[in-house]
Design goal:
Largest sheet: 7 strands, mixed
Number of strands: 16
CATH class of the largest domain: Alpha Beta
Shape: elongated
Number of helices: 13
Order of helices and strands: EEHEHEHEHHHEHEEHHEHEEEHEHEEHE
Strand content: 15-25%
Number of domains: 4
Oligomer: single chain
Helix content: 25-40%
CATH superfamily of the largest domain: P-loop containing nucleotide triphosphate hydrolases
Amino acid sequence: MELFDRQKDAVGQGERTLLIYVELPSTRNIHNAKSEFKELARSSGLDIIEAIHVNRNSTKAQYFIGTGKVDELAQMVQELELDLVIFSSELTPSQERNLEKTLQCQVMDRTGLILDIFALRASSFEGKLQVELAQLRHLSTRLVRGWTHLERQKGGIGMRGPGETQLETDKRLIAVRIKNITRRLDKVHKQRDLGRKSRVKNELPMIALAGYTNAGKSTLFNTLTDAKVFAHDQLFATLDSTIRRVILPASGEAVIADTVGFIQDLPHDLVDAFKSTLEETKRSDVLLHIVDAADEYNIEKIGQVDEIIEEIGAGKIPTILVMNKIDCLDNFTPRLDRDESGRAYRVWISSQTGEGIDLLYQALAEQLSGMMTRAKIELDVKSAHIRSEIYDVGYIHNEKVDDFGQWILEINVTHHYLSKLLNKKGVKLLWEQSQK
């Protein structure tokens, strides 16, 4: 057992906490796991009194770690008057109970910590329901916290007979609550599907942002859409999926979705609960994989995000790697990288300063070109108002008024919108050039 990063983090508001980072053979090659674990605890507002690093070659069934280490921890908990002990590895329900009984304080694992952070950050109705669903699924296996009342039979006047244990009651109530939340989420998902069908009907290109937590997705989303999504330098700053329509230079109208950030070993309960939100990633036409270019461990994180993208069924979506935060690198200029076939597969930008955003627009225009068409149209004098509509849903490359007062426009729009446009009175097609 050894201390890691002795400096204490006294936020003063949260529980007095001891962090236990357990290094196993399976985690020794993950370079950023320890610092990320501490950052997770800091993000939840806990008062981190001490952080301990424990090396183990195997785990123990009773406490996960050895009994000697547990005795040392019990003494430390008493001396430092700690409220909470958090383990970096996932604990079984029985291990959690055994540790709480011996340490005489609350014990939590990394999964419980992430669930707690999600509960703090969720703000939308759907997000709160998704988090509660994940928490209840996690809690349902951890009901017997060693509380004596859970084993009692109901009794007394009017309640004699076999009755049911308090534990059985708690399990039944949780099952009912899970069923109710699932039903309410189904209604929300149907509304989301209606919006999705509307976008498909209008053939609007769908762009989804994905990436490791704190890579800068929400900052880039705000830059591309002029939205005001909360963005902060902390893990899981935003949870709720946000969707906006946007006009992209040289591409026209598109839909951009900002999704929850990923992290290594993201709890399966959370992946299941947020599957509807992640559907936006799965159904997108282009996936922007946002990476912190200044992170020395970004190669590992790219691999971890790719695994989750495969897990949710989005592995075949065309992807552009967006190396963000180049403003944190020394003397680094924006650039667009192409593969051997000439496809733009990686772009280096700063969503904070706006450097390289034009190159990202260029890469998106190339990737989305199959859904777009370039055309030259003529609007008669009475149909000039259609010009403002085109500005809302497409991109106008060139425009002029001829000698007869008619607008001549060279536009970039979806195939579907062009067909609707040509059915309007006063609109004439001069030429069309497919971009497939």
